[in-house]
Amino acid sequence: MRLGFTYNVRSAERSAPQIGLAGDAEEEFDSPETIEAIANALRSLGHDVELLGDGDPLLRRLLNPGAPGRPDLVFNMAEGTGVARSREARVPAVLEMLGIPHTGSDPLTLAVALDKPLAKTVVAAAGVAVPRGVVVEGSGFRVQGSERRAGDVSPPITLDSLRLPLIAKPAFEGSSKGVLNKCLIEDRAAVANVVEELLSAYQQPILVEEFIDGEELTVGVLGNAPPQVLGVMRVVPRSDVKHFVYSLEMKREFSDRVRYECPAKLGTAVTAAVEQAALAAYKALGCRDVARIDFRLRGGVPYFIEANPLPGLAPDWSDLVLLAGALGIEHRELLRRILAAAVERYGLNDG
Fold first, then answer.
1. Beta bridge mates, 210
2. Rounded CA gap, 94 and 44, in Å?
3. Which string of DSSP letters, residue by residue, matches 8-34?
4. Closest among 342, 331, 338 to 44, alpha carbons compared
5. For FRET with 196, which of 15, 134, 172, 283 sits at 20 to 30 Å CA-CA?
6. 135 pairs with which residues across the strands?
7. Of the candidates 74, 33, 82, the residue with the CA atom closest to the CA atom of residue 50
8. Which residues, 6+ apart, have CB-to-CB distance to 216 below 8 Å?
9. Any residues with CB less than 8 A from the CB of 165 and at least 6 apart, and which?
10. Looking at residue 22, what is its pLDDT?
11. CB 268 within 8 A of CB 324
């Protein structure tokens, strides 16, 4: 099969412009080594792989009448650039418009999932618990949509009514961009300063939620009709901390600061509740082929934090790859399963 491969690559390791509070403008992008490793793994599965990138090079290649034939299917990992909440949807939208099959979710799902408050609204409507929160914009705040339903006569949620501690984060980011240790707020007097700093640095609304003090979990889900839970992984700090945040600092030094427990030792009933919540979120958001769903677990209740229908696939450190590896599924096999799900969904011949 002729595969196209879409992605964003870092200009150089940690050489991103100092946008944000931690130089994290390209945090979602992959290194050249990761791109090559994934391309080689796809080639080892017997496919002819063409590197398409993203943006202008991708459009010029697909719209060039003199270029070789279009790919049979595109393995999509393109995150998009900038801060727009629809940036991850751009490549799938182009491919959909041109009638080119691709792995992963469609444009709507990718746009909704990147918008954390909107994703929580959708997932809460499916019966999954979400933290109470508000969205702060330059001109004020609005209640996270899932918290106000028709006929709700309870007191309105305000920033001041949220219970400490709080967690603040950019509303339209992934890969823990803007989720720093300082974003955990235990003093109400510090809320305004943290939120204003995030608003200025990330140029987008800021989600402020009640912090769910509990276990950090991530769930891998693969496939369609029906999707299946690959596994549940617990992220555990290596040192005692009052409130554990799986922050950007933690992820950048993951080997020294956290350990991964997979399968997570949660007990049968709690594991079933987490898996059920993950599948409910996956279906409610319309995810396809693959996603990673993050939760915080408190009192046996999984609280939905976010969904990543475009999860990282770096062979050495991406959470989904680590989860799969702990279950005996090597990197190449994980890619094969994602590709196979898309091939089956489109009714293609993968030969």
1. 166
2. 27
3. -B-SSTT-S---TTTT-TTTTSBPHHH
4. 331
5. 15
6. 142, 207
7. 74
8. 234, 235, 236, 244, 246, 294, 296
9. 184, 185, 186, 210, 211, 213, 243
10. 59
11. no
Mapped onto helix, strand or coil, the DSSP state of residue 43 is helix
Look at residue 146 in the predicted model and tell me its pLDDT. Answer: 40
Give the chain's residues under pLDDT 50.
13-19, 143, 145-151, 153
Give the C-alpha distances (Å, rounded to integers) separating 250 from 1, 211, 292, 314, 342. Answer: 39, 17, 18, 17, 33
Contact 351, 2 (CB under 8 A): no
Radius of gyration (C-alpha) of the chain in whole angstroms:
20
Closest by alpha carbon to 250, among 82, 71, 97, 22? Answer: 22
Q: What pTM was estimated for this model as a whole?
A: 0.90
Residue 159 carries which DSSP code?
A: G
Helix H or strand E encompassing 237:
strand 228-237
pLDDT in tens, 220-238: 999 999 999 999 999 998 8
Whether the CB-CB separation of 7 and 54 falls below 8 Å is answered with yes
Q: How high is the pLDDT of residue 18?
A: 47
Bridge partners, residue 142, by sequence: 135
Token couple for 17: 């412009």
CB 277 within 8 A of CB 302: yes
Cα separation, 145 vs 122, in Å, equals: 9
The first and second tokens of residue 116, run together, are: 């954390």
Q: How far is residue 244 from each of residues 23, 32, 183, 332, measured CA to CA in Å?
A: 22, 32, 12, 32
pLDDT at 145: 42
CA–CA dist 195, 224 (Å, integer): 39
Q: Show Cβ contacts of residue 74 under 8 Å, excluding neighbours closer than 6 positions.
A: 3, 4, 5, 6, 52, 91, 95, 100, 101, 102, 103
**Angle at the Cα of 262 from the Cα atoms of 259 and 267, rounded to 5 degrees:** 115
Work out whether strand 48-53 and strand 2-6 pair parallel, antiparallel, or are unpaired: parallel
Q: What is the DSSP letter of 72?
A: S
